[in-house]
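Need fresh eyes. Consider my entry:
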Amino acid sequence: MARDVLHLEVRSGGDAAHTGSHVLTLEARDDANWNHLLPEVISGRAEPGGQVEHQLPAEQVGAFRFFAGTTLAGRSDPRASAWLEAGAAADGPELRASSYLAELLHRRGHLEAPECAFDDPRAFVHFATLPAMQACRAQFVAFAVDSLPSESGSLRVLDVGCGDGGLLAELLPALLAAGRWDEVSTITLLDPSPAMISTAKARLASAWPDARVEGRVSRLEFVASTLQGHYDLVLGSLSLHHMPAEVKRRALSALAPSIEHLLLLELDADHDSPEVGSPRLAASVHQTYGWMLAQILGPATPDEVARESADQFVAPELVSLLTQPRGSRSEYHMRRERWLTLLSDAMGPDIRPLGTRTLLATPHADLFAMHVGRLD
């Protein structure tokens, strides 16, 4: 069935299209101004609430304090905590990046992630079951049903960065109920965490006892050219951003001949091109990760569970973005428009953009879905 290519957002119910992010992006003049003011912070001539901040728009004060505090923390300067604590006061409860890092510095004495991400599935499970993420997942499943064409036969699916398998477990019944495929024959799970693979395999094998469920402990960039078989559907939920753009392009180019459709769920943010220590990167991280931490550390969450999730799931990403240069860090989120360009370039003329939808829009972070697929 031939389909028109959808470059704009697909929404049910006639909602207005939305492809932009709510996240504040510094203009070139703001970036230059922050870099101009930073030496005053490093020298000790500037303090939180002082004259330097009078040269900033009011809406930038919290983010600038985060920038100053994390810059000082990277230099092991003890004044970092004062800037981060002042940033927390400016941010309030909606953003928790400054308050969390101030507390992390108190515990650790320096800017270092407490644990390696994903060693314990409980941290991921807590994040995935937050109300905001549950709402996002429900929207993603609805988008997949709306955007994927009806096919006949058995579904062969690859889940890249499968986590605990929860999203795929929600997606598969919805696709079959909507007549997108007749049955599930093969489920291939890919994740760098053995604990995640074990958890996901058990969940999906129980739900789909007649399907072949297989797991592989690795990252896509290492195995894209060696994956066996053909996949009707590839799912990438908050997983492909762990590669810089050029590595994404190589991995997706290698994968393209073996797939029919690719569904992405990603954070709309520019954490790929800005270099470590830049105002632009700090401002975006302050908002996006500040929003995530506010959800994780919310008042309804038991302290022990919330801390474990923040330490094991968010802190490694946050610290990597703030301390490691491009090519070494672990996070490379991209804007939606750049994803569209990269996928079009990487996957060849037979696989084209078929739809995108905003799943969650907040004043500080947007999450979106994207579908590219092979045209009949």
